[in-house]
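QUALITY CONTROL LOG
STEP: pairwise intake check
CHECKER ROLE: data steward
CRITERIA: each record must contain a sequence immediately followed by its structure tokens, with no blank fields

ENTRY 1 OF 2
RESULT FIELD BELOW
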Amino acid sequence: MFEILYNALVCTYNFNETSVSGGMIATFTSNRTVGICKPNQLPIGFFMEDYPTENYYASSVTNFSQVRIAIGIGEYRTDIHEEGFYNINDLLYCNPEGKITNNLLYKGNPIVGIVNYVENNVIGFLSIFDNLESINKPVVKEKIKPPSRSKNKFNRYTALMRRNK
């Protein structure tokens, strides 16, 4: 099950693999052709339905099927994910089967989304499609510089004192 709660765009692309489940992650494999995304590949979106379906279109010239891909930033809900425990704010990555996962083994790969809903083996998430390395960096504390000393002991405080005299 793959459900769109909010999505910016749905596009149709050629698909040259044998089958896929709705909710798996898609990536480009050639000109306007998509396939199942693997770790270290750039994700572009999610397959919207299971393919092949009863009424899919297969071109006799190219042997491609036409598939619909949900692309861009959106909010989704799915039960197609790697088994495991998911928590709110977990970062999501792509596993070798093209399913979303929060497994830290894939940390450093492009981030697919962030979990915002967990219930009964269904997770909801916001798509990100980015590599948020800054999330993993520690916060650097800025050093507070001492006030600079001015020449002739003239600063804003002394200026106000002279003005009031």
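ENTRY 2 OF 2
RESULT FIELD BELOW
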Amino acid sequence: MATEKIIITPSRFNSIATIVGVVLVLGLIVVGYFAWKKLNEENVRLRSEIIEFKKLTETLVRSSTKWATKGDLKNQMKDLLTKEDFKTLESDMDDLNARLTAVGHTVGTIKRKVSKLEASDREGPENPKVVKCDDGKLVDVHEYTKKPQIKELKDTKEAPVAEVKFDASNKKPWSYDIYQRDHRLVTVVGKKDSGQFTFHHKLEYSIPKKDPSKVYSIDLVTSDYIQVPLKNRIFWFNPILDLNFFTGGKIYEFADGPGRSESIVSIGVDLGLSLSSYGETRVDSLFRLFRIGTGYDAERQAAHFSFAPFAFNVGNPLPLLTNLYLTPQISVDTAGGLSVSLGVGPQF
């Protein structure tokens, strides 16, 4: 018995092409709408989103943060850094392949303390050679020449600052020991859903010579950051694997190979590799580019090989999805068909 072969007439071909075209156009309209909506929402957010400085506890503050341009960030760095530091920082960020995102400065203060007419904390050993008058009395009324006078200075936090010694029996009577202070800055960085960073700071210091375990807080009076929003860019080499469930139709038959060559519907699954991406970061893509895939067409019962110039991440503008891609693709299969289809699936 002769095998019956279905021949695609021009009218049937046109119908399939029209259906596939309509599906692709509708998909692009949906994609364009959400991309436009996201862009408008982002512009509104950039104009209005500001985090205000707030003192949360006696030692912990929240920095203010607002959006700015990359030029604003560079200008602020030039104001805060020396030319040498600025050039070194730019060079180091280039070496790390890092993008400038935020610049800020934090100011803390230890308040002024004035002390007048205080007594010595203690006295040193008695001086063996003291200048006396003929009657044996000391030259100084308060007998400061007899023993060195020692005073320990403290700041407003009652932290030791220095030990000062005054020995009136010497030609150069003053000596002092300014204590080493170790400062510790704790910074916690968060990120809002909008991409804006949050900064929380705590600044402390200790006096190793006196008691290294005891810390003193520095009052933070201002802390301001400006941040540039991340912009989409192309990452030319960013290989990403994904899984696609595709559906479409055969538009041309060039051979009669293994499989159901008579079927004009194409449904199946394939595994793909995208070579490049377009988005804010390597892992957060708006588009994946230059995708090649291989899989199985269940309807045509044939091995399937596909190529897609791009795949759109519908999870990027939609709040409930993450990394879910729509992929318009063209493919060939072992049954001898050339198909156009639309795939949907997650990345790995």
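INTAKE CHECK: passed for both entries
DESCRIPTIVE NOTE, ENTRY 2: The radius of gyration is 37 Å.
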